[in-house]
Amino acid sequence: MSTDLMVGIAELKAAVRNVPNFPKPGIQFKDITPVLGDARLFASLVRHLTSGFKRGDVDAVVGIDARGFIFGAAAAMELNTAFVPIRKKGKLPYETYEQSYDLEYGSSTIAVHTDAVKPGSRIILIDDLLATGGTAAAAVVLLKRLGAEVLDVVFFIELAFLNGREKLPGVPVRSLITY
Ligand code: AMP
Q: How far is the C-alpha of 40 from the C-alpha of 155, rounded, in Å?
């Protein structure tokens, strides 16, 4: 896609659908499916997520279960590089490292294959949305354990009022749209 066909951030933001009280009362869910459902928006979003990087700069794009897989895999194609999934515990078949983190109620655990990236690999971590930052912070712990160099942690959406960035000290954090 040539640069002049790219959609700007404002148009991407306008396409995000707010769904009140999902998955529970009081949560306003940011539904990205309208962006995925429009080829021009989706392609532009991937270009924005990978902006600042060119082919050869990155050894792998890492995506977080589950919507991070959609953007992460597309970003890996864009940068002609590998894709690595970080999954919910119990889903990856080979040896894994695991990291738990707190949720509003209870906790969750994510995992990565122990051989997912070589030590020293330059990686970008991608997810759809930064809320409290617990998920992304746990993913960064896993990546450091693998010896990866985290070049960038990129989100389509940041809920800035939840201060998720504070859980990601020492790594560059970027988001395209903020609420
Ligand atoms: P957190 O660990 O609190 O930063 O939560 C981030 C994860 O939860 C992301 O992978 C999002 O997909 C999901 N998430 C949290 N809040 C929302 C929301 N309001 N709308 C959509 N997804 C959300």
A: 19
Q: What is the pLDDT of residue 104?
A: 76
For residue 56, what is the DSSP state?
T
What residue type is 178 in one-letter code?
Answer: T
Q: Which one, of 61, 80, 82, lies nearest residue 72 by Cα?
A: 61
Rounded Cα–Cα distance for residues 73 and 96 (Å): 20
pTM for this model (two decimals): 0.96
Answer whether 65 contacts ligand 1 (Cβ < 6 A). no
Ligand 1 atom closest to the CA of 131, numbered from 1? 4
pLDDT for 30-60, tens place per residue? Answer: 999 999 999 999 999 999 999 999 999 999 9
| Rounded distance from Cα 30 to ligand 1 centre (Å) | 8
125's enclosing H/E stretch is strand 122-130
Domains and CATH numbers, the chain: 53-178 (3.40.50.2020)
Any idea what the Cα angle at residue 30 is, between residues 102 and 23, rounded to 5°?
60
